[in-house]
Design goal:
Blueprint: H1 5-10, H2 15-18, E1 34-35, E2 46-47, H3 55-62, H4 67-84, H5 88-98, H6 107-119, H7 123-136, H8 141-153, H9 157-170, H10 174-187, H11 191-208, H12 214-231, H13 236-246, H14 251-263, H15 267-274, H16 281-293, H17 298-314, H18 320-329, H19 334-347, H20 351-370
Antiparallel strand pairs: 1-2
Helix pairs in contact: 4-5, 4-6, 5-6, 6-7, 7-8, 8-9, 9-10, 10-11, 10-12, 11-12, 12-13, 13-14, 14-15, 14-16, 15-16, 16-17, 16-18, 18-19, 18-20, 19-20
């Protein structure tokens, strides 16, 4: 799912950062905030610790004299996080937003804080900010998009339906068409209904034509790719490639494409897609699986073990899908993989989460039958 240029400037952290891409770094490379896995989604996930911060960033923060300056820098930090997957920028965003006094909280403040909280899986807190924003600006398109995304990926069908209906009233374009057909495909009980959702969205994209907003088209293409995967269509990989061609920095689309290439045993393509993104857990795990298939991968596997072990020691396994896949496909521990896949399912219920849970269940059943 993707956004208009204005939306990207306001909501840089939606589906791709809720779901697939992991963000924990090896201890020696970590320059961002210390993360703690929440016991409830209202709990603060991290606190800022001493870190290497560029001097000019500190000076800029000290020179801030208005709430607008703090908010502008928070927005930039969120955009930097989207491009780099470096959690240090989340700490920067939190610091800037903390510099805004309660009396100066604005619609933009609530929107950016919701985006920050959403990226940390603090879904209830993010939704609370969006509720306040809804009172300030009932027709805020970006807030409705975020509200839909949170509900969709967390399995809140009623909330996603309501957000999609509201979105269509505010701006009935490719975004609204995408959310309608995504919901249709996700709730479908028969393959024919998923295919119908695919055809309907593809028709809407064709009607929008080449003059459609590029980011709206990118969002719709990602939605169409997701639906194509659910339908088992051969063009799913081509559609994710299309999204990636529009935005090479889209790590979510990159991970979805790499996963499809891995399923097709195109290990060379997986390595090419992931080699520059090993700081992102989901992409690093896919790289490790492909490298092992080709007789290597010991360095990245060792790196991932260290990364996940430290995350476990800290209690900060925020991105459970990548860890469950690592346990299943690298460590050959199906029981542990199933446990983490189930834990992940409690938070995230997107198509890759569904597939991983099913694979882990099959692996456990096979292990039990072989005993």
């Amino acid at each position: 799912m993707r956004f208009t240029n204005n939306t990207r400037a306001i909501l840089p952290l939606l589906m791709g950062f809720i779901l697939g891409p992991g963000l924990s770094l090896v201890a020696s490379a970590l320059t961002g905030p210390a993360v703690t896995h929440p016991t409830r989604d209202e709990q603060t996930v991290f606190t800022i610790t001493k870190q290497a911060t560029p001097q000019n960033t500190l000076q800029n923060s000290l020179l801030a004299t208005t709430p607008e300056q703090h908010i502008a820098r928070a927005k930039q930090a969120l955009l930097d996080f989207q491009r780099s997957a470096n959690p240090r920028f989340l700490g920067n965003a939190q610091r800037e937003l903390a510099g805004v006094l309660a009396a100066d909280y604005s619609a933009d403040f609530y929107l950016y804080r919701a985006s920050l909280r959403q990226s940390l899986h603090q879904f209830s807190a993010a939704s609370a900010d969006l509720a306040v924003l809804g009172k300030l600006q009932p027709n805020n398109f970006h807030a409705h998009m975020m509200r839909f995304t949170i509900a969709f990926v967390s399995g809140d069908e009623a909330g996603a339906e309501l957000a999609c209906q509201t979105l269509a009233k505010v701006n009935d374009d490719l975004y609204a068409a995408s959310c309608r057909q995504l919901l249709r495909a996700a709730h479908a009980e028969e393959l024919g209904e998923i295919e119908a959702a695919y055809r309907t969205l593809k028709t809407a994209m064709a009607k929008a034509g080449p003059l459609a907003d590029r980011q709206a088209l990118s969002w719709a293409s990602g939605s169409l790719a997701d639906i194509a995967e659910r339908a088992g269509r051969d063009d799913a990989a081509q559609l994710w490639q299309l999204v990636l061609s529009m935005n090479p920095d889209d790590v979510y689309a990159r991970a979805r494409l790499a996963a499809l290439k891995l399923a097709a045993n195109d290990d060379a393509a997986v390595l090419i897609l992931t080699k520059a993104y090993l700081a992102v857990d989901s992409l690093a795990v896919l790289n490790a699986i492909a490298a092992r298939r080709q007789g290597g991968g010991e360095q990245i596997i060792s790196l991932l073990r260290e990364r996940f072990n430290e995350a476990l020691w800290r209690g900060e396994v925020l991105h459970k899908r990548a860890y469950a896949q690592f346990l299943l496909d690298i460590e050959s521990k199906p029981a542990a993989a199933l446990m983490w896949a189930k834990n992940n399912w409690q938070e995230q219920r997107e198509w890759p989460d569904t597939q991983l849970l099913a694979r882990a269940k099959r692996a456990v059943a096979q292990a039990e039958n072989s005993q």
